[in-house]
Predict the structure.
Amino acid sequence: MADVGVRPARRADAAAVADIQVRTWRHAYRDLLPAAVLDAVTAPDARETWRERWAEAAAAPPSPRHRLLVAVASDLVVGFAAHGPSEDGDRDPATTAELIALLVDPLHARAGHGSRLLAATVDLLREDGTATLVSWAFEGDEVTRAFLGSAGWAPDGTARTLDMGEPVRQVRLHTDISVP
């Protein structure tokens, strides 16, 4: 088995993270987002913008509680997770964090990388004193919802509709990560 693990992202990982984001979105969101929107956010110029944003997130996060982690297999970045304090108005950012992204390259799916990323995220957030972790998922994204559901997440009853030329609904999922 390949050497696998999770570590903090480095600026040098930004291109790999952006590539994974684009490949995963093209694969996972092709039936969830309007084609024009998906084409725009995965185009070559968008990929460069994502690379710059992920480089900044790795090198100079907005706060000490914002983190970007990468899953690696034999020194190859195969997935990533980003989290930070919740920005939802009905949540206390001192005790609630948001899983902003958790994506695994479709070429490396079903190898435990997502679970390792989620576990590492929870470990770091517990050290920060976080009690609740939330994430927004597209309502029709059964893969993400099933993955998080298998880890104890559930919808909290909050939803939002994004205007992407047509309405795209998201639901907020949550889980209690406080140490018993």
In short: The radius of gyration is 16 Å. The chain has a mean pLDDT of 96. The first helix runs from residue 14 to 28. The first strand starts at residue 4 and ends at 8.
